[in-house]
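Appendix B, example 12.
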Amino acid sequence: MAEFALSQIEALEHVPGAPMPRSAQCQIVTRIAGHGVAAQAGVARRDLMAAVDGQPASRVGSRLYRTQASRRSYSFYSRPRHERIELVTTGIEIGVLLEPTTPAVRAGYEPGDPDPSALEILWARRDLEALERLTAKTLASGRHRDSPALLFHGAALYETGRRDHGLAEIREYLTEHAPKWTLNFTGIAGYYTALEALRVGREHEGLALLKTAWGYNSSDRMAELIEKQTGARPAKPACQWLQRRFPDYAYPGLDGAGPRVVTLAGALESMSNDQLLAVCLLANDRSNGPYADFLLRWRNYATHLREFFSGLHVLTCRKERHPDREQHGQREAEVRALGHPFELLHEADEAVVNTILPSGSPVIFLLDRTGTVVYEGGLDPVDVWDALASVSA
């Protein structure tokens, strides 16, 4: 994989003694794939990404796969080495995860179009002043009370001593609005109900609530509190299906191309020894936000990493998409238009999902030619490089 990653670099320059870029225009590298393009270029965790395609990095967002490109330029900055790294690549994912700096979040947050992920960053970094101020501006309009802005405003109030008011907002979010949003926010709401139970002496209840919250959002803050209460830091659940044979299946397609059945056995037989098959389990959902986001990542993988993948199978127990999620069909159409094998399958008998028992939706598995699971998770832009490197080693 290192050789392939190097082949994706069109230009590379290291500039020693370079001045540090403005923090408010940067993003931070929070994770990096050991054999990805960025690592081959000398980028490291905690380095700053200052610019993408000539634009300040803070303006382009952390999910670069949301836009397609045949060529990309990056400017990184290594604080320990005082060095700027100028990198030009193909449009491939370079193997990093990013977060905006705190000054960038503060400067770029739009109260009328609130970004929950930006608020979660402020919460994780304990920037309570900015969290309260920005969420108060969002809630002032009255249009976003059903969003995580309510949760984070309540969290800021609770953390700064206004517990009753803060808890009321957190509980309102949890009981009335949480089902519309992803479970990481439910976990944060649960964290505060656990904190309150512990504060008033209901230790058994508080610890149980905290462990449930950590199952939804395995953040360092929750792990630290569990360790404080129990003396042991919780470990993330092990992947249950690694190195196990994936359940066999034969399901009809949902793409309207006429009656046909797609089998796992047939897909495996058509693979080469160097390829992997991706299987995405949606369980009882037809589509959701994380699935639509995964399809954007897969669009990039199927464009630039297609030689390593034989295709993608998406299994869903539900035929009809939710009425308010029709736009997710556009993501599927974009993937199908690439001409790389993509099968959307109706798991009517729920046999696979009842065998796998996935912890969420979607969960992505990578299978080798024998049907053995070599990866289980969300297949983010770091995971994909690490997974491919692990099977090619």
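The mean pLDDT is 94. The first strand starts at residue 9 and ends at 16.
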